[in-house]
Specification:
The two termini are about 20 Å apart. The protein has 2 domains: about 40 residues; about 50 residues, HU Protein, Chain A. Helix content is about 45%, strand content about 30%. By secondary structure, it is of the alpha+beta class.
């Protein structure tokens, strides 16, 4: 499912216009992005949680040449699946 399909599903299930559904979904995603940018944790009970993980610099390898390269430190979002969702997916 992509963002457009999510918007359509909301519009159909709640009898909203496509425009109204798009505003709602965009507000949710913008709020989540802002929270992660600020280093906040997002928890959606029964679904999972999002956190920002800090990764230290390390020496990697160029896959084409095998030559060592330095990888800079970085911060990336990480998703941990919730128990209920894990059980639904696993069957």
């Amino acid at each position: 499912m992509n963002k457009s399909e999510l918007i359509e599903a909301l519009a159909q299930q709640k009898d909203f216009s496509f425009k109204k559904s798009e505003e709602i979904i965009n507000t949710i995603f913008d709020s989540m992005s802002s929270a992660l940018e600020a280093g906040e944790r997002i928890e959606i009970r029964g679904f999972g949680s999002f956190v920002v993980k800090d990764y230290k610099p390390y020496t990697g390898r160029n896959p084409k040449t095998g030559e060592p390269i330095k990888v800079k430190p970085k911060r990336l979002p990480f998703f941990k699946v919730g128990k209920e969702l894990k059980e639904k997916v696993d069957g």
